Protein: Putative pre-mRNA-splicing factor ATP-dependent RNA helicase DHX32
Organism: Pan troglodytes
Amino acid sequence: MEEEGLECPNSSSEKRYFPESLDSSDGDEEEVLACEDLELNPFDGLPYSSRYYKLLKEREDLPIWKEKYSFMENLLQNQIVIVSGDAKCGKSSQVPQWCAEYCLSIHYQHGGVICTQVHKQTVVQLALRVADEMDVNIGHEVGYVIPFENCCTNETILRYCTDDMLQREMMSNPFLGSYGVIILDDIHERSIATDVLLGLLKDILLARPELKLIINSSPHLISKLNSYYGNVPVIEVKNKHPVEVVYLSEAQKDSFESILRLIFEIHHSGEKGDIVVFLACEQDIEKVCETVYQGSNLNPDLGELVVVPLYPKEKCSLFKPLDETEKRCQVYQRRVVLTTSSGEFLIWSNSVRFVIDVGVERRKVYNPRIRANSLVMQPISQSQAEIRKQILGSSSSGKFFCLYTEEFASKDMTPLKPAEMQEANLTSMVLFMKRIDIAGLGHCDFMNRPAPESLMQALEDLDYLAALDNDGNLSEFGIIMSEFPLDPQLSKSILASCEFDCVDEVLTIAAMVTAPNCFSHVPHGAEEAALTCWKTFLHPEGDHFTLISIYKAYQDTTLNSSSEYCVEKWCRDYFLNCSALRMADVIRAELLEIIKRIELPYAEPAFGSKENTLNIKKALLSGYFMQIARDVDGSGNYLMLTHKQVAQLHPLSGYSITKKMPEWVLFHKFSISENNYIRITSEISPELFMQLVPQYYFSNLPPSESKDILQQVVDHLSPVSTMNKEQQMCETCPETAEQRCTLQ
């Protein structure tokens, strides 16, 4: 009956959900009834506040508002609806509210609404904004879920979440029975989690005919989505952008100089409006930031240049929308926002009038052959350039400065952004797919098939980590590893720490390497002071142990401080990132909760003893035996054990600061770039490595001097026991990893 009420244009229920500005009827009596209906909020039963009506007028001005009636009709009649619209058209905030109205109209008999986003900052900001527009409380009727933070209750009607959190929910709720409408947003970002959800939801929709799927996308991806999902209705949101685009007449070598010249030319022109600059990488942000800051007050009559650096990859803080109204001050302030790729989602202000785009980005591309990321400079896609242009919104005087030629845009830029699945390490994804296969959802029709080589490498790594059994299915170890929202290697180290009685310490390491960098950005000229402060935390056994020392010092300060301000001051004094340490605290608490929930043994902390130090290294080696390097010449040139790449210790490593270079190290991260740094390193002995490395992994290593040294260590220790171990491994593992590991 409720669905029929929504379809009927003259029903009173439609009056509640469709404001009269969209209604075709114009009777005075019906308008009065509509106003009476709007007085009580149907979601909480309380009277609407005056702010609700103020925000309602703003919502009615959004380009998508004209499509509300069309969307609701299609939602009633179809299982899948695609919404195509540019940035700032309102689809991310309005479509979920309309879906909540639909679920309310059928009394939530199939569940509530969940809307995914790729970036967690967007999740929080949208949830806050939508709760405000719906005139309800955040955390009650509207909530959000991001990694290590859940702001929802069982009664929450509309949830915003990151795509990876919905994916994790499928491990305990495979068919997502709590939801009547699922909205996948930010599809054009092509994240691994979103692509996996797109594929798995095909099967879930067949199993649950009552479930509705809404796909929000930019127009560039619509044809691909149509061929992927078949003939489904598309709601197109028209949003004109009268933007002046300026290209370079010829290619320039130094974009840095052009950026600075443009910023100061715009400022000297006297035209009002903020500036957004898209740079290739975070190092460029720091470089431009420093130069602009030095020249920001050259002409006080023109106002002040306020530099706002935005780092999209920093997880420690939620970037709030820029102020919509200028601050009341005597001097005009023009904000210069410096960001990189994926920074588009951080710009929520309507005061931007100028966008400067370098047209290239530093991308992280995973190479499965050497198990390492390469940082490569590549042109952005045409769709990314278009989204950056849309930041200017409906500004009639917006200008988009392209620091590249029109020919470069048409020939060198690809039409669409590459799918992350084709450029990233797939080990975590394959572990999830193996876990979900237990629920009968192992097959996944991906929009873009991952490279077979990447899949095989992921399966091989899971096999080395003992996450798979002889049939290629998840082992008991693998099932427990999948419970942790971490990289599989880190999960394996936590499991090993249960055996080696060092869970407390390894949980701290896991939290610290998962949280953002705990070291703050150091202002120019303060490098020596920062190093002096950091030296107080250095641990002789390595960087993993230094992270434990920093966390323990932070904990002690928190316990002994009278206020949060004292903790923040302590962090500032020691050049530490307070929000990153807070996040590490939250992550550690959740990991400890998982340990208790699955009833793993938990030993008392014993940090500092020799036995504990050895046990921590054993636990780390159990997960990171594939990330070992040796100093081949005694001067800090480390050769990877698995390939021929040479790297140096990161300048912030304790070993770099103390100038003591161990011969063998275990490292947490390595990327191939102009500076081949290995990050977060700790010394290990070859004897300890050979005790813990899976024998069939060691035998598969390519020939090298390092492998010969390790083999000599084994022969010297116990040649007979080693032969017996190899024979035993051959008996228990007669098949190769390739034969045993087949992705279902």
User: Anything to note?
Assistant: The first strand starts at residue 80 and ends at 84.
